[in-house]
Write a structure and sequence with these properties.
The complex is a heterotrimer of chains A (263), B (470) and C (305). Chain A has 263 residues and is an all-alpha fold. Chain A has nine helices and no strands. Chain C has two domains: 74 residues, no CATH class; 208 residues, MetI-like fold, CATH 1.10.3720.10. Classes of the chains: A mainly alpha (263), B alpha/beta (470), C mainly alpha (305). Chains A and C meet through α3, α4, α7, α8 and α9 of A and α1, α6, α7, α10 and α11 of C.
């Protein structure tokens, strides 16, 4: 797929999801309205994606899940990217003992697999969406910090930065002008690529019951709630699953397009 | 076997790589394909070999066609380290020439052939990165000629080797093949070893000359096409030495000096020991030596970028390393020119900004552009929109913007085509004539000789070259 | 050799650092851990005496560095403390459940390799590449819990194909391994495909073809080996994510492994169990990555950085 196509498709998918999140609540039924008489109804004109085990409209719940599932992932990614960029660039530009200390810290954090670290943090803070976001952000900054450091360090040795220093530009200034913009772009691209992983991670942990408490809508949790009835009403698993796939796909395309841009 | 190529054209999409090429290689003949990068030499060889990508549009004939690769036609590539898979041993690489055809190499055959070329067979058990370039080229040759193919194709077989190794490699190649078609851009080397020369320009054969191994002189005597004459003129020794202003040897202090300097890399042995070197204003000093011998380290030391293990580095009389951080007389006193032209300018910045950063106003930048032979079109261009030679000129403009009194140039023309390289050399000479001191490091002795006032060999400066070339 | 022993030494140091990190996380927790344990175990409103008693019992009154030191030394000898819920040694409870998870992991890794390598090979052929990439793209985007749930509830339960053996045996591991394998295979196939494309562009591949090697031989002998280092790295990374993946899959298939044990401990805030299990996961990850690095360096010496 060409870079432009990727960029626009990815962005379009994500925008579509955001729009649905805003539009559906205005047009459709209340995602929390239960209707036990109409449980597990198959898709029909009145309920385009059917109803769940409490009679709630699946389409409404799915749309309500966008801020929690996708929105939380965006927050996690943004925070991880910002922290990672700061730590990585500081380590590369300052050099010396600052670099050694920061790099060792990053190494230690990286030695713990991301989701395992998130699980450990949740294990300490307790379940809940906020704690989940904190946990995943704590787990996600380190890979971006390492990437930022390697990227920035590489740029610092580039001939044009050496030339700037010989011409009298002070190191921090040269770094700010030549290194930070390019590194920020690189980090943004890699972080966007990781957005899909974050969505999957959040959904998985929510599936395990470590995320939002019911009845708040969240895609992973919606699947967890419906495992027992999945045989009768497979759409209860397929719909949230498909939305997750869509989010991950959109984020991957967007991230890939961003990553292909900078030389 | 006689190779006949008739009206061969090759197109990749809307890029035409070869136009109506006619070529013959008679039995026992060595034919050279000469041209600059992008002239289509490699495409022609790939076509004869039958390895063009499926997306290429081909017309014309090659007789005999569908040559059996490895058996009827052999192939030698440019860089021996690139030709061997780093994962396997060299022995595996050579034996592949047989195994690719479902055969096993005859017992002792490889060892004997290697010994005949002066290579100890014991090293076959080791992997390519432990071999030297010259040795590996010979091992690769054994593989290429495993089945004694009547025709050998060689694509820039000596470009990655130093001058002496190149001559030896070329001689060995010619001796090992019955007929050979060799592509390259080293006019001097190729005309000494080939019977006939085809000159390619932008995919077309513009001239066919019989030189009968007579060297550049033979080519110069019989060539008539403008492009061939251009290539001849770009030869380093060809033009009369570039005129340069005679600066009375400045009696004042040298612009840069190394006093009993020893340079080493942390963790490994010394690269240069006890070096004394002085550069004066208006002088072009060439530093010549093989790649990896320490030229870059020397230049970095002169620029104050590499702290010496012992000794003093002076710029404009000032001791650079009197404190922990390097002290230079003023910003922009010493400015660099790099070999890696692509990386010498910030890819996100327009060209004028890179020059302005060194301390020039927009108006001054425009003047400097004119001074280095660029025009206002290039001001706002991004580096990727400029050619290698143009980027190098921007780098020189940046050096001038810094009001440099010393320019350190690390292989400034190595990555450029011969005609472009000649232009950049001329520019550096002009800059020196206007009072700047220029130190140029290069492995191309001939080119450096054409515009330098003095050339020192790295070996003379008291260095031990780390890698031994057998 | 200097290279490998340095790597191993670095890995050991990193492991200790990670253990310190894992242990220190509990300092983030708000409130009193003893209180939380009591609440999690059903004591609605613990009295200060109860809390104090539990604190003394669990040794929570000593300063943090001392507790950390104790824990590290004990962990080095295989003692991971006692569960705050059951009182049983964590190491013993883990040892009970570990074999089932290991079998699941082994089967999943094997499946993933069997899927990824042919997929990457097929993707080298221009026409099949698009389909292969689409497949891989989807495979990476589908959550393992969706695949697992659909597999279990729809395929097995509703349609009656296959059986679920939640007994920790090799045979029973086949079904739960599928969601894990799909996710891993998608990543590995992508990495291997890209690596093979990169290697194919190198000159030695062209030289091999020029010397007469056929297309298949070129792919298997000249491209695949050189493309394996990034695959080793990817495999190492996958081992790291296996614990979390196992938590999900084992929950779905009621597999008697380490996963559900960890999840229950998290909900109950049983800190020793969480720490011990996470430490195990970290150990496996560090070992796997070190092995992957060593293997990659052995295959392609030029990459050693």
């Amino acid at each position: 797929m060409s870079r432009r196509a990727e960029l626009w498709t990815g962005a379009a998918v994500l925008v579509l999801l955001a729009v649905a999140a805003l539009a559906v609540p205005l047009l459709g039924p209340d995602p929390d309205a239960t209707d036990y008489a109409n449980r597990l109804a198959a898709p029909s004109p009145s309920h385009p994606l059917g109803t769940d085990q409490a009679g709630r409209d699946v389409l409404a719940r799915a749309a309500a899940g966008v801020p929690t599932s996708l929105g939380a992932a965006v927050v996690v990614t943004a925070v991880s990217a910002a922290v990672g960029l700061l730590v990585g660039v500081t380590a590369a530009v300052a050099g010396g003992w600052v670099d050694t200390v920061l790099s060792r810290v990053v190494d230690v954090v990286l030695a713990v697999p991301q989701l395992v670290l998130a699980l450990a943090v949740v294990g300490v803070l307790g379940p809940g969406l906020t704690n989940l976001v904190v946990a995943m952000a704590l787990a996600g900054w380190a890979p971006l910090a390492r990437y930022a450091r390697t990227f920035a360090a590489g740029l610092l040795h580039r001939p044009y930065v050496v030339a700037a220093e010989l011409a009298g530009v002070a190191r921090p200034v040269a770094a700010l002008r030549h290194v930070v913009p390019a590194t920020a772009g690189g980090v943004a691209a890699v972080a966007t690529l990781g957005l899909g992983e974050v969505v999957l991670g959040l959904a998985g942990l929510s599936f395990l019951g470590l995320g939002v408490a019911p009845p708040t809508a969240e895609w992973g949790q919606m699947v967890a709630e419906s495992t027992t009835v999945a045989g009768q009403a497979p759409w209860l698993v397929v719909v949230p699953g498909a939305l997750i796939v869509l989010s991950v796909a959109g984020a991957s395309l967007l991230g890939d397009a961003l990553a292909r841009e900078a030389p | 076997m006689r190779l006949a190529v008739e009206r061969l054209s090759v197109r990749y999409g809307n890029v035409t790589a070869l136009r109506e090429v006619d070529l013959t290689v008679a039995d026992g003949e060595v034919v050279a394909l000469i041209g600059e990068s992008g002239s289509g030499k490699s495409t022609l060889l790939d076509a004869v070999l039958g390895v063009l990508p499926a997306s290429a549009a081909v017309s014309g004939t090659i007789r005999p066609d569908r040559l059996r690769r490895g058996v009827e036609v052999g192939y030698v590539a440019q860089d021996p380290f690139g030709s061997c898979d780093p994962v396997w041993t060299v022995g595996h690489h050579v034996a592949e020439a047989w195994r690719a055809h479902g055969q096993r190499p005859p017992r002792g055959h490889i060892a004997r052939r290697l010994a005949a070329l002066g290579v100890a067979p014991g090293a076959l058990r080791r992997r390519p990165h432990t071999w030297s370039g010259g040795m590996l080229q010979r091992a690769d040759l054994v593989a290429a000629t495993a089945h004694a193919p009547p025709l050998l194709l060689a694509d820039e077989p000596t470009s990655a080797l130093d001058a002496d190794a190149a001559e030896a490699a070329m001689t060995t190649l010619v001796r090992s093949a019955r007929s050979m078609l060799v592509a390259g851009h080293d006019l001097a080397l190729l005309t000494r070893h080939a019977d006939a020369v085809h000159v390619l320009e932008r995919g077309r054969v513009v001239e066919r000359v019989r030189v009968d191994r007579g060297g550049v002189a033979a080519l110069a005597a019989r060539a008539s096409h403008p492009h061939t004459r251009e290539l001849l003129a770009a030869l380093p020794g060809a033009a009369a030495r570039l005129p340069h202003g005679h600066h009375a040897a400045t009696r004042g202090a040298p612009v840069a000096a190394l006093e009993r300097v020893t340079l080493a890399h942390p963790g490994s042995g010394p690269v240069l020991v006890d070096v004394d070197l002085q550069v004066r204003a208006g002088e072009v000093l060439g530093v010549h030596g093989p790649s990896g011998g320490g030229k870059t380290t020397l230049l970095r030391a002169l620029a104050g970028l590499h702290r010496p293990a012992s000794g003093t580095v002076r710029l404009g009389g000032v001791d650079v390393w009197s404190g922990r951080r390097p002290r230079r007389p003023r910003p922009g006193f010493v400015m660099p020119i790099f070999q890696d032209v692509a990386a010498s300018l910030d890819p996100r910045w327009p060209a004028w900004r890179s020059v302005a950063e060194a301390g020039a106003t927009r108006a001054e930048v425009e003047r400097l552009f004119a001074a280095v032979g660029l025009d206002h079109r290039h001001l706002g261009a991004r580096p990727h929109q400029l050619s290698g030679g143009q980027r190098q000129r921007v780098a020189i403009a940046r050096a001038l913007a810094g009001r440099a009194e010393l320019i350190v140039a690390d292989e400034p023309t190595a990555a450029l085509d011969p005609t472009v390289a000649a232009g950049v050399s001329r520019l550096l000479r002009e800059v020196a004539d206007r009072g700047c001191a220029v130190v140029v490091a290069s492995h191309d002795r001939a080119r450096v000789n054409s515009y330098a006032d003095r050339v020192v060999r790295l070996a003379e400066l008291g260095i031990r070259d780390g890698r031994s070339e057998l | 050799m200097r290279g490998p022993s340095r790597r191993i030494a670095q890995a050991a140091v990193t492991l200790v650092g990670a253990a310190v990190l894992v242990w220190s996380l509990q300092l983030l927790a708000p409130g009193d851990p003893a209180r939380r344990v009591l609440v999690a175990n059903g004591v609605g409103n613990p009295t200060p005496t109860q809390v104090a008693a539990l604190r003394a019992e669990l040794g929570l009154d000593e300063p943090a560095p001392v507790r950390l030191g104790r824990w590290l030394l004990a962990a080095a000898t295989g003692d991971l403390g006692r569960s705050w819920r059951s009182g049983a040694p964590v190491a013993a409870e883990l040892a009970d459940r570990l074999p089932a998870t290991l079998r699941l992991a082994a089967v999943a890794l094997g499946f993933a390799l069997l899927l990824a390598v042919p997929l990457a090979l097929i993707a080298q052929h221009r026409r099949a590449d698009l389909a292969a990439r689409g497949l891989v793209f989807l495979g990476a985007a589908v959550p393992s819990f969706v695949v697992g749930t659909l597999l279990l509830e729809v395929v097995v339960v509703r349609l009656g194909i296959g059986r679920v053996l939640a007994d920790g045996s090799w045979g029973g591991a086949v079904l739960p391994a599928v969601p894990l394998a799909l996710a891993a295979a998608a990543v590995w196939a992508r990495v291997l495909r890209a690596a093979m494309l990169e290697v194919r562009a190198r000159r030695h591949v062209q030289v091999a073809r020029a010397r007469g090697a056929g297309r298949l031989r070129v792919l298997l002998v000249h491209v695949l080996p050189g493309a394996s280092p990034p695959l080793f790295t990817a495999i190492g990374m996958t081992v790291g994510s296996l614990l979390a993946g196992a938590a999900v899959v084992e929950t779905i298939f009621t597999w008697p492994g380490v996963g559900p044990y960890l999840v229950e401990a998290i909900v109950a805030r049983d800190v020793p169990v969480v720490q011990g299990t996470v430490l195990l996961g970290v150990l496996a990850y560090v070992v796997a990555n070190t092995l992957a690095d060593l293997a990659a360096a052995a295959v392609d010496p030029g990459r050693a950085r």
